[in-house]
Amino acid sequence: MKHVLLLVALAACNPTLTVQSPQPPGRIARMDPVRTFWGLQRYRLELSRGVAIALTCDLDGPCEHMQVVSDDPAIAEVRPASLGVLQQGGLDGEQTSAALVVVGKAPGATRLHVRSKGKERDVVVTVVAPPEPGALTAAR
Fold it and tell me: Out of 38-42, 82-86, 96-100, 136-140, which region has the weakest mean confidence (pLDDT)?
């Protein structure tokens, strides 16, 4: 039983991500948590090609020394960002948010690895082709 509690505690200590930008009209930009019995395991992100989504990272306050790596930057490119948003930083008061932007570059699937303070959270990214220009008007 002690091992089970330790696994649950360790899973809860990884970075959490929050979407900070809206989905553009007629395109996809959506992130969902993937939960199991043990809690939050990873995130699933779906983007249209050419769309960017802003995320903030939290680990007992804004993620410190955050590193983000894409397994395939040709599909999903990651860039550090400054959103100008303050976040509660534990006992230290408010701090600038740790942020990143993910850009859908080409249709396909890849993974992002978000690291902070030796902890990691994965994001499974699927980039889809945007709808054809006539598809939106034909649907009306």
Answer: 136-140
Q: Over the stretch 115-138, which tens digit does the pLDDT of each residue have?
A: 999 999 999 999 999 877 765 554
d(CA 60, CA 92): 11
Tokens at residue 68, please? 């983000």
- Could you give the maximum distance between any two Cα atoms of the chain, in Å? 59
Helix (H), strand (E) at residue 97? none
DSSP 59-83: SSSBPSS-EEEES-TTTEEEEEE--
CATH of domain 2-130: 2.60.40.1080
d(CA 55, CA 22): 11
Domain boundaries, the chain: 2-130
- Which amino acid is present at 84? G
